[in-house]
Each structure stands twice: as structure tokens, then as C-alpha cells.
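Demo today. Your pick:
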Amino acid sequence: MKSKIILLVYSFFSAFFSLFFMFVIFSVINNIEFSQNIFKIDIINDFILDVVYIKSVVFLTILFFVTLYFVYRSKL
């Protein structure tokens, strides 16, 4: 029982910290690109970054809930 709780806490914090670091990395990338292209707005590049960010958030959320499902299933 204690190992299942540890697995649950680990999966939650790994998903949270991976989302946090992904947000930090993408914001740094956007700031660098904005400082280089002050007079030029790169809409396509921002769209690609947003799509990659949304896909990774969806993937990590699905991974988190699958981990929760297996933890609760193994409890039965």
C-alpha cells in the first residue's frame, strides 16, 4: 500500500515538474525569438510552438491518468 502511494505521488510530481520545465523552456525560446525579431512577427513559428506545447500537455495528462488507473487497479 505504501509503495502505491509513493508511485502516485511520484507520477503526480513528475507530470507537474515536466509541465513546469516545458513551460519555462518554451517561454525562454519565445523571449529569445522575440528579441531577435523585434519588428517581425513570426506567426507560424509561434503557432508551431503552441501546437507542440499543447500536444505535450495532452500527452503528459493522459500519461498521468493512465498511471492513476493502474495504481487504483492494482489496489483492487
In short: The chain has a mean pLDDT of 70.
